[in-house]
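Data availability (excerpt). The following record was deposited with the supplementary files.
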Amino acid sequence: MNSNACNISVVIPSLNEQDTIKQCLERLSPHKDHGLEIIVVDGGSHDDTVKLATPLASCVLLTKPGRALQMNAGARVATGQCIIFLHADTVLPEHVNDLFLKVDNIENRWGRFDVRLSGQNGLFRIIEKCMNMRSTLTGIVTGDQALFVGKELFNKVGGYPEIALMEDIAISRLLKKQAKPVRFKDRVLSSSRRWEKNGIIMTILKMWMLRLLYFFHYDTNKLAKLYD
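Predicted structure:
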């Protein structure tokens, strides 16, 4: 890796994301000049997601649906020393290349960004602060925070456990045993559409209920149905 290239792969799992995928990829395109590889892994979209992604991504893969399965598929073909797992509705900082150049031994490190939610409701400021604090205290990273992991370390832990839900918590637990997570205080901007659609308080209660059930080893296939 030379001093001007980050040699990073971004893996974006998608499913019916035609309203967000084009804008997501257009924002990432300028980083290609700094060595960024953009991999979209579609889980069987019924809309124009694949059509819109194909001319803008470095690679578009087609798989069965399942976020963990899709991200593992993307990681297998990724050529970067480090992989960022990015939601289609999450925006990376503009200077993301510079951040990773400062991390030594990136192939064996992992971590996340602080997050800011897109909604203007004051409750979102509280939610995002709680999310960032929770990750700092527990070392658990959620998908909204753009988890990143070195390719060697990712392979060492066997990738994402291919479960129906809570795969981000599951891999965080595996990675914590290998290395302390890196925290970038530079924020990603994540969509608050889930909270806005279903209600802020109801969404918070639902997510904590699901996490509590997962803690007590509730079947993740049943959890996924509750989530949907």
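Summary of structural features: The chain has a mean pLDDT of 93.
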